[in-house]
Amino acid sequence: MGAIMKSLNVFRKSFFFYGSIGTFIFFSLNPVKLYAQNPAKSIPDGTEGEFFPKPYDSLTNLSKKDKWENWNEFDGPLTTLKFGLGFMAEYAGFSQDSTSKQQVPGANDNFSVRDFRYTMAGIVKSEREITWKAGINYDGNTGTWRIRETGVQFKMPELSGYIFVGRTKQGYSLQKIQNGFTLWRFERPMIQDLVPILGDGIKYTGYYPKQHLQWTLGAYFNMFGNENQPQTAFKRQITTRLVWTPVYTTPTNSVLHIAFDYNYGRVLGDSIQVRSKPEVSKSPYFVDSKKFWADVTNSFSGEIYYRTGPFMAGTEFAAHYVHSPENGNPIFTGAFFFLLYSFTGETRPYSPNFGVFSFQTVKKPVFKGGPGNIEATVSFSNIDLDNGAITGGKFWRLTPAIFWSLDRNYFTTFAYGFGVLDKNNLKGDTQFFQWRFGFWF
């Protein structure tokens, strides 16, 4: 019952988002025509590195293939419409030694829906490039419905970029900015959990190709309280990210990505709790600071990614400074590293406009007699919540995994993990067994 009431509150408090967007679509969309605009350049679909598909020059003489590939696109007198659907389900198994069971009781094997989401987006037919986006998802991790990236984006050639108004990715950490369905990990790195993925406010995203720089700056406010966005613990936040790509020519050629991230957070209610799961969605928290007094956080993060052909390697590392004099102003640190290789030769495209990697390409889909895209990864991730007077624990995990994309839309993943928790003067070992499958349109 509690989960149902929380879900109802999400819809009630977010009604103006979908009420205004739904009204706009109702009066402006003609749902019987295919999308027919033909802009000279790709138009971003939100801020996660996705783009609207290439449109048609006319509505006549379309092949069956063209009609099938653009089945979810429509055209209207004032705006276009593209709707999307995503689903992920997964199994998680745990094998704990006696010490780990003592440290973290309740880590039970389970099968669950990880994510189910519905999105809408469109291009407004105006002189200035204006796009809109709306999304909602069921988060199996919390058992609640949440509003995803929802708002309006304006192209600002005067500023060499875009301005997004509404709910959007804050722009901190490549792993958190990317669409979760594009990641080569089961979950995002533990050390980045302190900074929320989403925020309500305004964000500028700029790209300067001559200088090989991409810059993001956003200001966010907790306008709806924790019920609407339960992952946030802040009244307001300021986030900025500067990306330098000294090696980059095209989305699929070699790229070297170096970035710096910063987030300022004013803590809600002068009380904060920093905790993280072991990169398993349906799991107890392995490290947990418990609630303690704090008023401000300052988070710093670095990113280095290199990709050439089917090979990619990268790291992110972070330090979160928490202003809490009575607890010794703790600093929480951690990092993750990974190696990735595609045995079938695919290359993950890079989007310099937003400084992220986009959806994986598949040269020979399974449904056309090919092998799909088969990738192997190995990653190491750690987090340290023992600092000052806080003893939240230390945890690290090593994870080899196989990612199999049947085509651009369907995928499945297998992973084994081994982790060690150092907490309360005890060290416990846990083995993780994970399987996930899903689709995205």
Q: What order do the helices and strands come in, and which of them pair?
A:
Blueprint: H1 2-13, H2 15-28, H3 64-69, E1 73-75, E2 80-96, H4 98-103, E3 110-124, E4 130-139, E5 144-147, E6 150-156, E7 161-169, H5 174-177, E8 198-208, E9 213-221, E10 234-247, E11 255-267, E12 271-272, E13 275-276, E14 287-288, E15 292-293, E16 296-308, E17 311-323, E18 331-342, E19 350-351, E20 356-357, E21 373-387, E22 390-405, E23 410-423, E24 426-440
Antiparallel strand pairs: 1-2, 2-3, 2-24, 3-4, 4-5, 4-6, 6-7, 7-8, 8-9, 9-10, 10-11, 11-16, 12-15, 13-14, 16-17, 17-18, 18-21, 19-20, 21-22, 22-23, 23-24
Query: According to CATH, what is the topology?
Result: Porin
H and E string: HHHEEHEEEEEHEEEEEEEEEEEEEEEEE
Helical content, roughly?
A: under 10%
Strand order of the largest sheet: 2-3-4-6-7-8-9-10-11-16-17-18-21-22-23-24
Q: What's the CATH class, please?
A: Mainly Beta
Q: What structural class results from the helix and strand content?
A: mainly beta
CATH homology-level superfamily: Porin
Could you characterize the architecture of this molecule?
- With 441 residues, the chain is mainly beta.
- The chain contains 5 helices and 24 strands.
- The strands form 4 sheets. It has a 16-stranded antiparallel β-barrel with strand order 2-3-4-6-7-8-9-10-11-16-17-18-21-22-23-24. A two-stranded antiparallel sheet has the order 12-15.
- The radius of gyration is 22 Å and the shape is globular.
- The two termini are 32 Å apart.
